[in-house]
Amino acid sequence: MIIPIYIYGHPILRSECKNIDASYDGLESLIENMFETMYNANGIGLSAPQIGLAINLFIIDLSPYGDEDPSFLDMKEVFINPEIIEESGQEICHNEGCLSIPGVREDIERKSVVKLKYLDQNFIEREVEISGLFARVVQHEYDHLNKTLFIDYLSPLKKNIVNRKLNSIIKGKFKEEYPTVLKK
């Protein structure tokens, strides 16, 4: 089932997220629905706040980048209660967008290596060190769980330039390519 994606300006995107455990009601179908929603919106990552849930859960699937890096073909993962332990390496600038901020893309600097602890879909604890695009997408989705959006990293000048687009998004003036929820 495709779930509407909550759009910039909605308070859920700035809400405190809570950890969940294996008894979370309907988790398996929620995860399936999140993947279906993400694919419908042509995304490679989706966090629970983006579908209106203030829980520590996000998903990624980097298989669309499998032509560039064959290791991404099997890079479909569920992250429950993730915790970034360490960010290291050099700052890499890359153009980012977000399903919750349609039509806005900006260059964002992020550390190139991330050490992450999380529970997988079967609630098995994992600890991994990741880099490159994988690390970037994980950092982006992890930020959602911590009330942060990629635009928060913009300089005041860049943010000022983007503000017109952000104000239009808040007013519902954007090309809707998938079901969305605006702040009421």
Task: Summarize the main sheet.
Answer: 5 strands, antiparallel
Shape: globular
Straight-line N-to-C gap: 23 Å
Whole-number count of domains:
1
Give the name of the CATH superfamily.
Peptide deformylase
N to C succession of SSEs: EHEEEEEHHE
Structural class: alpha+beta
Q: Within the largest sheet, what's the order of strands?
A: 2-3-4-5-6
What is the strand content?
25-35%
Number of helices: 3
Mean pLDDT: 95
Helix content: 10-25%
**What CATH architecture would you give?**
Alpha-Beta Complex
The CATH class assignment is Alpha Beta
State the CATH topology.
Peptide Deformylase
Number of DSSP-assigned strands: 7
Notable characteristics:
7 strands, 3 helices, 184 residues, Peptide Deformylase, alpha+beta, 5-stranded antiparallel sheet
Structure description:
The chain has 184 residues and is of the alpha+beta class. It has a single domain (5-181), classed as Peptide Deformylase. It contains three helices and seven strands; from the N terminus they run βαβββββααβ. The protein has helices at residues 27-40, 132-145, 156-170, and strands spanning 5-6, 45-47, 57-61, 76-98, 101-119, 125-131, 180-181. The strands form two sheets. Strands 2-3-4-5-6 form a five-stranded antiparallel sheet, with helices on both faces. A two-stranded parallel sheet has the order 1-7. It is globular, with a radius of gyration of 16 Å.
